[in-house]
Amino acid sequence: MDAFAAARLVAGAGFLAVAANLDLRTRRVRDPLWIAMGTVGLALLAVELTWTSAVVDGWLLLGSAAILFYAVFFGKPILDEDRIHLRPARILILAAAAVGFLAALLLPTVVSTAGGTSGLAPTTRLASMPIMVLVYQGFYQLGVLRGGADAKAMIALTLLVPQYPDAAPFPILGLQPNVLQAMEVFFPFSLVVLVNAAILFLAVPIAYLVVNATRGDLEFPQALFGTKAPINALPEHVWLMERVDRDGERVAVLFPSRGRDESEDIPKLKAAGATRVWVQPKVPFLVPLSVGFLLAFFAGNLMLGFLTAFLPHP
Q1: Per residue in 68-103, pLDDT tens?
Q2: What is the DSSP letter of 272?
Q3: Is 196 helix (H, G, I), strand (E, B) or coil?
Q4: What confidence tier does 119 reach under pLDDT thresholds 50, 70, 90?
Q5: Which residues have C-beta within 8 Å of that of residue 54, sequence separation ≥ 6?
Q6: Mean pLDDT across the chain, nearest whole number?
Q7: Omega before 221 cis (within 30°)?
Q8: Is the predicted pLDDT of residue 109 greater than 70, yes or no?
Q9: Per-residue b/e over 251-284, b at no fewer than 16 CB within 10 Å?
Q10: 32 phi and psi angles, rounded to 5 deg
Q11: Helices 286-298, 148-160: inter-axial angle, 10-degree rounding
C-alpha cells in the first residue's frame, strides 16, 4: 500500500468513525466534519499532483471539484424548495467550475512522473470528482440518499479518494486490468463504498421482520420497512408510516417524506382509532457506510464479487 493510499485510509476511517458515532447517538452530523474531510482530500490530491508533476488538467479538475464542494456548504443555493433564485455571484462561481472541468477534458491527458514512480490516473479518471459531487446532490434530491449527512459524506469521500487507491495486496476481490480501467471511469471508488454499504443495509429489513415476528406484527409489506409503536409514546428518530386519507381511512406509507410535518398526522390517526402505528426508524446509515469504506479498501466491490462467484463463467 503506497503512502497516499494509507493516508486516505487512515483519514477516511477516522472521519467516518466520528461521524458514525454521532449519527448513532444523535442522528446529526454537523457540516464542519464534512468540510474538514473534503479539505483533507483536496490537500492530499494537491500534494499527489505536485509529487507526480502532473500537468495542468489535473489541477483544473481539482479546482472544479473544490468549487462545487464548498458551494454545498457556503452561500445560498440557486434552487430551493420554493423557486429558482438568480444569484449572479453564485452563478459565476459555478460557471468557473464548469469551465475548468471542460478545459481539463479538452487538454491532452498526459501525466508526467517524478522519480520513476507511476503517475496519477489520466484525466478521465479524475473527472469523476466534480461529476460525483453533482451526482450525490442529485441522489439526495431524489431520495436515494435519505439524509443530508449521508449525501455530504459521499461528496467528501469523492474528494478524499478520487480514484481507486494503490493498496496492494488489497483489495482481495481484485479486478482484471481492463475491467479496472473501465470501473475507474464509470464506477468511481466512492460509488463502490456506497454499494457496499447498501449491501450491508439489506440486513435492516431482515431485522425488522424478526422483531415484528416476535411481536406478532406480521403485516406485509410494512413488516419489512419498520415496526409498530404506541401512538402516545412514539420513540425518537422515527418517521410515521401511516396517514389518514381524505376518506378518513388509515393508509400505509412505505417511504415517508423526510420533509413532512408529521405533527398534523398524529391527531388524525388518533381520531381514526389508532393506538399503535407503523413507524420507520431513522437508521444511522453512516454506520454501514463506515464499514463499506473499509470493505472497499480491503475486500473490494462486494457486488462484483458476488456476481463473479455465482454467475456462470464462459
Answers
A1: 999 999 877 766 666 666 778 888 988 999 999 998
A2: T
A3: helix
A4: very low
A5: 48, 111, 112, 119, 120
A6: 85
A7: yes
A8: no
A9: eebeebeeeeebeebbeebeeeebeebbbbbbbb
A10: -55, -30
A11: 20
